[in-house]
Amino acid sequence: MTLIFESPSSEILDMPDNICLKPNCDLLFICEDSDYLGEGGTPENYMRILSPNGKMANFAKNIAKGFETSEFAGSAFSEDGKTLFVNMQAVGATFAIWGDWNTFRR
Question: Measuring CA to CA, which residue among 3, 94, 90, 97 is closest to residue 50?
C-alpha cells in the first residue's frame, strides 16, 4: 500500500469516510463527514477529487438550506463510468451526476 495523500489540516480534507474510484480511471472521489465541530471539524461538507499525483480538488459542496452539515455518502459510479451517484445523508436524497469527466485532468 502506498500513501498518496495525507491531509495537513481539516480545511483541506475533513473526516473522509467514503471513497469511490471512477471505473477505468485513477480519480478517487472522497466524501467528507465533517459534522464533528466539537472535535475540530469544519461545518462544511464537500465531495473532493484526488488524483494519483496527490492533487486535491473540490467537486461539490453541500449548500442544502437547513442541512448544511449533512454529509455526502455512498458514492458509486455506474458500470460504464458515465454517471456518479451520491447520497446526501440527512436530506435523504440521491443525486445522479454526469458530464465530461476528462475536464478534471486539466
Answer: 3
* Confidence (pLDDT) at 40: 61
Residues 106 and 87: their CA atoms lie apart, in Å, by 27
* Other Cβ atoms within 10 Å of 50 Cβ, number: 20
Least confident of 19-23, 39-43, 57-61, 91-95: 39-43
Global confidence as pTM = 0.83
Q: How many CB atoms lie within 10 A of CB 29?
A: 23
Determine contact, residues 67/83, Cβ cutoff 8 Å. Answer: no
Q: Taking the C-alpha atoms of 32, 33, 36 and 39 in order, what is their torsion angle to the nearest 10 degrees? A: -50
Strand order through the sheet with 93-98: 72-77, 83-88, 93-98
